[in-house]
Specification:
The protein has 576 residues and is an alpha/beta fold. It has 21 helices and 12 strands. The protein has a 12-stranded mixed beta sheet, sandwiched between helices. Helix 7 runs antiparallel to helix 8, helix 8 crosses helix 10 and helix 9 runs antiparallel to helix 10. The radius of gyration is 48 Å and the shape is rod-shaped. The N terminus is likely disordered.
Length: 576
C-alpha cells in the first residue's frame, strides 16, 4: 500500500487542474506515460545509440514500452565484464540465455554454468505463443524461433555431458584450500606441499596423489624433506588429510584426474561462423556449491594463464557467465579474493568478458564490483531490515536518474531490469528501466534424448570421455616407500645376520677355550698320577731300552742269512 501511495503523490497537483482543459490536455500524456519526460527519454535513446556492433537488451520502459528507445550493449564492451542480479524468479536465467544467444549469433563463443538445467533450451528452437508474440511485438522485437550451436559438459562426468576434469596440480593450493575450508596456516602449509611436489617431479593428478605426498612428508623417511623450508607439522597435515578424505567421500574424487580439460576448447566456433555455447551441467553437484563455484574460478584462472594478450577487440574472444557467484565469495580468504580481483581486472586484456550472475550486488566484493562495466539489475525484494539495507546500498551505486529506484527496483516485473552499461567511450550510459527481449531458444530444458544425441556426436567425447590413470605422485612415492622398506628390511636382516655370526663366533671361541682348559686339566691329572706311581717322566711313548750284544748278533742281517741257508739245507727247501 505504501508503494502504491508514493506514485500517487506527484499526481495530486495535477488533480486540481481539470478547469483549464486546454493546457491540461497536452500535458496529460507525459505524467501518465511514466516518470520520464520527453527530454529524458531522448537523452536515454541517444545514450544507447552506438556506432559498432551491439547486443539488443530490450525497450525502454516509461510505464509502457517506448519502442523507439532500444537499450543495447556495445559488443566491443562485453570484455569489460558485467553483473546480472535479481531475486529468485525475476528472469535472470532468461536474460543470460538471451545474451548468450546473441553473442553466439555474432560469432562469440560463450561459456555458462547451467545450475538448474534449464539453460539447455538454447539448443532447441523456441515455441511461439500468442502471449510471447504480443510481448515481443510491444518492445519492437522481431521474434522467431532459433537454436544455437551447443556443447554440453558435465563436472566430473556426473551428468549427461562430456566429462570435465582437472588435475590437483592444475587446481592449485589456493583454490583447493577454499574448497576444503582451510584456515590461513593450513593454506600456507598446503602451498608448501604443492611446492615440494612440483620441485621433485611428483605429479598431483588426483586426490590420492596429494594424500600420498602428505603421508610421505610426515613419515620417518620423508619428514626431513621440508626441514629447510620450515617443515610441516603432523597436526596440520592431519587436518588436511581428514578434510581430503571427507572431500573425497562426498564424491569429489571424480572431478580430479586426467585427461585434464583444455579450456581452449571453449573458444570454438561452428563451421558457419557462429560461436559455440558451452554449457557446464552441474545439477549433480548442486549440493557441493563450494566445489562448483571454485571449479568455475579454476576455469577462469586457466583462461587467464593460457590466452595471449590481445588488448581491446571489436568483439570478445569468449564471454564467461559465472552463475551463483555469491557461492564463490562466501568465506573466501584475503588471498583468494585478491586472486579473483586480479584475474577479473587483467583477463579483459586477454579478450575474455566475465558476467557474474547472483541475487544482489552486495554478494560481490567491492573491488570486484568496481571492475564491472555493465549492470542488469532485476527486481529486488525488501522483506527484512537487511533486505532494505541492501536495496538502499544498491540504489546508491547507480548514476542519478529520473527514476525513484528504491521504489522501481521493488516493482519491476518478471523480465524487466534496471540497466546501465559502458559506452564505446568508456563512460556509463544513463539508467534505463528496460523490458528485456525474449530468448529465441526454448525457455525450458532441452529433452534428455536430444542432449544425449548431441553429446555422443561431439568430437570432444573421444578426447575427454575416458579417464586415464598415469604414473603420478602416488605410484612414485609408493615405489619409493617400498624401496625404503626393502632397504630397511635388508639392513635389518644384515644386522641380524651379523649379530648371529658374532654370537656364533663367540660361542665357538668359548667352546675352544673350554676344550683347551679341559685338555690342560687332563694333562695335569695324568702327570700327577705318573708322578705318584714312580714314573720318570710324563711322556706316554717311553724310549725302548738299548739291545744286548746277543740281540745285536742275532738280529743282524748276516746272522739271518746264515740261518736261512742252514734251514734250507736241512729241510731241502732251497733250490738246487
Amino acid at each position: 500500500p505504501e508503494a502504491s501511495a508514493a506514485p500517487e503523490a506527484p499526481e495530486v497537483p495535477a488533480a486540481p487542474e481539470p478547469a483549464p482543459a486546454a493546457p491540461a490536455a497536452p500535458e496529460a500524456p507525459e505524467p501518465s506515460a511514466g516518470p520520464l519526460d520527453a527530454d529524458q527519454i531522448s537523452a536515454i535513446t541517444q545514450g544507447y545509440s552506438f556506432e559498432g556492433g551491439t547486443l539488443d537488451l530490450g525497450a525502454l520502459m516509461n510505464t509502457d514500452p517506448v519502442v523507439g528507445a532500444q537499450i543495447r550493449i556495445p559488443l566491443g564492451m562485453m570484455n569489460r565484464h558485467g553483473l546480472v542480479a535479481g531475486a529468485t524468479g525475476t528472469g535472470k536465467t532468461r536474460t543470460l540465455q538471451g545474451l548468450a544467444e546473441q553473442l553466439a549469433a555474432k560469432g562469440v563463443p560463450v561459456f555458462a554454468a547451467d545450475m538448474k538445467g534449464d539453460l539447455s533450451g538454447v539448443a532447441t528452437p523456441g515455441e511461439p505463443s500468442d502471449k510471447l508474440l504480443a510481448r515481443t511485438k510491444a518492445i519492437g522485437q522481431d521474434w522467431k524461433p532459433e537454436a544455437s550451436v551447443t556443447e554440453y559438459f558435465a563436472l566430473g562426468g556426473i551428468g549427461k555431458g562430456v566429462p570435465v576434469r582437472a588435475t590437483v596440480s592444475g587446481f592449485g593450493p589456493l583454490l583447493l584450500s577454499k574448497v576444503l575450508g582451510l584456515n590461513a596456516t593450513q593454506e600456507s602449509s598446503l602451498g608448501l606441499v604443492f611446492h615440494y611436489a612440483d620441485a621433485n617431479g611428483l605429479a598431483l593428478v588426483d586426490l590420492s596423489d596429494l594424500r600420498a605426498v602428505l603421508s610421505w612428508l610426515t613419515s620417518d623417511e620423508g619428514k626431513g624433506e621440508l626441514k629447510d623450508l620450515g617443515g610441516l607439522s603432523a597436526a596440520t597435515a592431519g587436518v588436511i588429510l581428514r578434510e581430503l578424505i571427507t572431500f573425497a567421500d562426498d564424491g569429489a574424487d571424480t572431478f580430479f584426474g586426467e585427461p585434464e580439460l583444455d579450456v581452449r576448447d571453449f573458444l570454438r566456433t561452428a563451421p558457419d561462423g557462429r560461436g559455440v555455447i558451452s554449457l557446464l551441467e552441474v545439477p549433480g553437484v548442486a549440493d557441493k556449491p563450494a566445489l562448483f563455484s571454485t571449479f568455475l574460478m579454476y576455469l577462469l584462472a586457466e583462461l587467464y594463464e593460457i590466452l595471449p594478450e590481445v588488448g581491446d577487440l571489436d568483439k570478445p574472444k569468449l564471454v564467461f557467465f559465472f552463475d551463483e557467484a555469491h557461492l564463490l565469495f562466501k568465506d573466501a580468504s584475503k588471498d583468494f579474493l585478491s586472486s579473483i580481483t586480479q584475474t577479473v581486472r587483467l583477463i579483459r586484456s586477454k579478450g575474455v568478458g566475465v558476467f557474474f550472475v547472483t541475487q544482489t550486488p552486495k554478494d560481490v566484493p567491492g573491488d570486484v564490483l568496481a571492475q564491472l562495466g555493465s549492470r542488469i539489475q532485476h527486481a529486488l525484494r525488501a522483506f527484512t531490515p537487511d533486505d532494505a539495507k541492501a536495496l538502499r546500498a544498491t540504489v546508491g551505486t547507480y548514476p542519478k536518474s529520473g527514476y525513484d529506484l528504491e521504489r522501481v527496483l521493488q516493482e519491476l516485473g518478471t523480465g524487466e531490469a534496471i540497466v546501465t552499461v559502458m559506452s564505446e567511450k568508456g563512460a556509463p550510459t544513463p539508467v534505463a528501466w528496460t523490458r528485456l527481449r525474449a530468448p529465441q531458444g526454448l525457455m525450458s530444458p532441452t529433452p534428455d534424448p536430444d542432449i544425449e544425441r548431441a553429446v555422443h556426436a561431439s568430437p570432444l567425447l573421444a578426447k575427454y570421455g575416458t579417464a586415464i590413470d598415469p604414473e603420478s605422485a602416488r605410484e612414485i612415492l609408493t615405489a619409493k616407500m617400498n624401496a625404503a622398506a626393502e632397504k630397511d628390511a635388508a639392513e635389518q636382516a644384515a644386522k641380524a645376520q651379523a649379530a648371529a655370526q658374532k654370537e656364533l663366533d663367540k660361542q665357538q671361541a668359548a667352546a675352544q677355550k673350554a676344550q683347551a682348559a679341559a685338555e690342560k686339566e687332563q694333562q695335569r691329572e695324568y702327570d700327577r698320577l705318573m708322578k705318584a706311581s714312580g714314573g720318570a717322566s710324563r711322556t706316554r711313548t717311553t724310549r725302548k731300552p738299548d739291545p744286548s750284544p746277543l740281540d745285536q748278533v742275532l738280529n743282524s742281517k748276516t746272522t739271518q742269512t746264515i740261518l736261512n741257508s742252514v734251514i734250507r739245507g736241512m729241510f731241502g727247501t732251497g733250490r738246487r
